[in-house]
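Would you mind writing out the residues of a protein together with its fold in token form for me to study?
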Amino acid sequence: MKLLKYIFIVACLYIYIYSPPLKMLPFGLIQVMTPVAYVYLAVNRLFGKMFRLYRKEIGIFLILCIYSFIREVLASSDLSFFYDSLFMLVDVIPIAFFISHFAFFNFSSSGIEGMQGKLLNLFVYTAVIAGLITFYLILNPTMAEVMNKGILRSGEVEYESTYRSFGFASSLLFAYAIVQGLAVAILLFKVEKQSIKTYPALILMIVLLVISILFNARIGFAPIAVMTVYLLIMKRSYKLIIACAVLLPLLSYLLFNSSLSYLFGENLDWSLKFFTETQQLLSNKSTSDASNYDVLFNDMLFMPDTAGSIIFGIGQDIIIHAKRNSDIGYVRQLFFGGMIYLSILFYLITSMFLRLRKIRFARWFNFLFIFTTLVCEIKGIMLSNNSAFRTLILLYVGIIYLDAIRKGRNSVAKKKESFNARNLGNVESVVDSGSIQPVAN
């Protein structure tokens, strides 16, 4: 029975996070999960609790829905931003709450940290399964072509790509890699708490996940970098240094001294060029015209022409409709809804950040959440209904729920302590008053 529960929740997690866009379905696979989540929440009478815990986030997504709808109707646009916010409201938050509740109360865990660890482990196992699929497709290019052209509703870039886009997921060239990077970040976080005998399994999973990033989108290294900074500067983790000392030589060997280097030289050249470009950027050296950073910060960083467009946007996604387009999420969202739309989005992530900051056991996630979101917005629309932001929402929903459980347990413990103290006081007062006489021998 426990095994069936594991299979069920991992399947739910895979669909929720990666939502493979199957050609046979006219909608995202995540929407198959929506009725399952609603039935579970209704049977367990959890809707009221969900609204109480996340009423502010639900309210902000509702405002985003209203503003997006008005802006796109006025611009005669395709309502893509409206539907994106609507799905976050009616699909993502309820499914995330359902998964969190199921994970917390269907598997034995000791204490709040144990329950948090259970959710993190389930996520990592799901990411590893996705990584295994990617690895299989890398080794079988024919099957990868069948996947992109026959099974998934891939975009034009994925469809034509020959050196990346390997996986059974949506947004392979952006959000998928970030999810895999988040899984690596969590494994690095767990290194600090694990004994050295668990390192081989952790390292094997990290290598697999890193490969799934290298062959899809380099932006997936962003959350890894964020967690590394957190562990080295905030936690001063010596175990991370040991793990890196093992991981880097192992990865170097796998990439340059194995059949992967011979078979996928173009893929690896493209992937590893990222590190050279980043080093040049950080050291303030001039980069080549082909540098990804030159394209981003010179060609794709620009503002709307009029004051009205800056405030209200133009109601369209410039990556589709404009002659001059951009990958940068901030630019695309500014052009769509102006400073008003961007302000609502920043209010959302600021509210989430401030709420997490009050939770002692969530400090690591708060650091990962805010910096991963801000950095990844540079390369695409991170704050949207994609697999990366859905993953962050899942972990956020789970942590907020855990904090509510902790507060509830502490309240019950205090009430019991107060009740016991009051009863003890009553007994002592009765004895002192002489109402209870000693029994004669």
Notes: The radius of gyration is 25 Å. The first helix runs from residue 2 to 18. Residues 222 and 375 are 7 Å apart (CA to CA).
